[in-house]
Amino acid sequence: MTVARWAQNFWRSSDSDSNNQRFFPNPACQRRYLFDDALPVNIDALIGDYIRQYNQHKLSFPPVSAGTSLPPPDAGQSYLLYLHIPYCVILCPFCSFHRVQFEPGEAGNYFDCLRREIDLVTEAGFRFDELYVGGGTPTVAPDELAKTITLVREQHTIGGVSVETNPDDLARDSMAALRYAGVNRLSVGVQSFDNDLLREMQRLDKYGSGEEIRTRLQHAEGHFDTLNVDMIFNMPHQTEASLQRDLNILTDDVGVDQVSFYPLMTVNSTRKKMQQSMGSVDYDREKAFYGLIANHMLACGYVRTSAWCFSRKPGLFDEYIVEREEYLGLGSGSFSYLGGKLYSSTFSINHYLRLVQAGKTGTFGCLDMTDRDQMRYYLLMQLFSGSLDKAAAEERFDGRFQRTLWPELTMLQTIGAVRNAGVQLTLTERGYYIWVMLMRNFFTGVNNLRDQMRHNIARETAILEAE
Ligand SMILES: C[S@@+](CC[C@H](N)C(=O)[O-])C[C@H]1O[C@@H](n2cnc3c(N)ncnc32)[C@H](O)[C@@H]1O
Ligand code: SF4
Cα–chain-centroid distance for residue 192? Predict the structure, then answer.
């Protein structure tokens, strides 16, 4: 089959209705969004492989060196502030984020240092208008969390505060305290309502059964402007029937404002534990699961605010790296993207405490991105939300955006992922799934950076000892 014929297939597949009946048992929600699997090769997998290799090559920190520090702020610019709280009461086998076992004494010192770090960057002139607290589990020490949010809100005019949590922290008084501290978006890690899958993820005992989580979510509704639920799809033993039950609970029983469906991601450091506990991931099933999710959520009246996030109404706050090109991250294991450079703080809690107590930020690694990589990053993030404003892109990159990225843009249009829609580039239905793969590979690249920073700890120790 010729390339031209393949390209025709891709375009056609955006409008195909061939798999309609397969995914959509819930009669209340009519299937409208479709995928065509009848291609001679799995071109999506080929694209995924290409991106994975590209990320492995590009997303790699040089060895950490002494004297790495954050740049000064751009005068007049307001940033999003990300705070990382690495503590969790249990460590889930699939999770590749920077997280350590919760220990109250150490966590108290950590929050003290985090507040000192906030003071440091505020004194350096940074201004913030939005706050995102992620983890780990930020709500493990609720009083410390509230004190830290309050500090940021006293120093800056903050429009929105988003906090990640787990289902066991959804008690009525905890939610009232978070609301009082200014939190207006709460993101709850559910992953699935299927008790067998929760058991395999080792979350059942600590975070409760699917039925318990559902009841807690029902009670949480209405406390925040946005209640988001994090789910994972394509778990090794997940079936389409199990995922469909999850979808029905989300839309029919709970009716949350927003659902983020992450494709299960693996990384070297977690692969073995995850395989032992949950089994091996089969990426060939991912597209069908995504089709099931998109069809159900869209038919039930949700809008897609990013390729894997579905909201009851447009304009709800979602992934911060999509909404804001630049952001500053504080706390051990956080990243910042400023002035075309990606900075990482140390992944050693001890080093972090030591650096901040010595009056420095926890910054220890820096990756300088080329102009072209900055444009590709911009393209990836903008189209993750479904569309890219061409004029804004040209303004951001001094009129060089389309001229520089023409090979990427031509390729994306040829394979039917992106459509040229006047002033915008928009994702096609096929493009949405391709973007799920791209973002999964991008986040896998970021997870590998996390592994790299963990390996850097020995070198950091040598640097700190020499100081
Ligand atoms: C890092 S957790 C932090 C919030 C909270 N501790 C929790 O468990 O939800 C945020 C979300 O990342 C997602 N996540 C973590 N590891 C993942 C993986 N390996 N693949 C896909 N999603 C993952 C989960 O949906 C999780 O809820
Ligand atoms: S998924 Fe959440 S609770 Fe589990 S280890 Fe990761 S950050 Fe902690």
Answer: 17
How remote is the CA of residue 89 from the centroid of ligand 1, in Å? Answer: 14
Looking at the fold, whether 294 and 428 belong to one and the same domain comes out as: no
421: domain range?
3-59+372-439
- Phi and psi torsions of 125, nearest 5°: 105, 0
Number of domains in the chain: 2
* 204-207-208 Cα angle (round to 5): 60
Instruction: Give the ligand whose atoms come closest to the C-alpha of residue 232.
Output: 1
Q: pLDDT tens digits, residue range 234-288?
A: 999 999 999 999 999 999 999 799 999 999 998 888 899 999 999 999 999 999 9
Which protein residue's CA is at the shortest distance from atom 26 of ligand 1? 189
pLDDT, one tens digit per residue, over 123-151 is 999 999 999 999 999 999 999 999 999 99
Which residue's CA is minimally distant from atom 15 of ligand 1?
A: 95
Which atom from ligand 1 is nearest to the alpha carbon of 95?
Answer: 16
**Is residue 339 one of the residues assigned to a domain?**
no
Same domain, yes or no: 96 and 205: yes
**Ligand closest to the CA atom of residue 201:** 2
pLDDT exceeds cutoff 60 at 10: no
Contact 375, 397 (CB under 8 A): yes
Query: Is the preceding omega at residue 136 within 30 degrees of 0, hence cis?
Result: yes
pLDDT tens readout for residues 79-98: 999 999 999 999 999 998 99
* Pocket probe mutation, ligand 1, options 95, 132, 229, max atoms within 8 Å of Cβ: 95
Is the domain of 39 the same as that of 118? no
Ligand 1 mean position, distance from CA 189 (Å): 6
Which residues, 6 or more positions from 13, have their beta carbon under 8 angstroms from its beta carbon?
34, 35, 36, 38, 39, 416, 430
Q: What are the tokens at 119?
A: 């003071």
The residue whose CA has the least distance to atom 6 of ligand 1 is 137
**Same domain (yes/no): 104, 234:** yes
C-alpha to C-alpha distance for 97 and 83, rounded to whole angstroms: 13
Structure confidence at residue 269 (pLDDT): 83
Report the mean per-residue pLDDT for the chain: 86
- Rounded-to-integer distance, Cα 168 and Cα 105, Å: 21
Residue located nearest, by CA, to atom 4 of ligand 2: 92
pLDDT at residue 37, as a whole number: 44
Q: Which pLDDT score is estimated for 82?
A: 97
Atom 14 (ligand 1) nearest CA: 95
Pair (101, 221) in one structural domain: yes
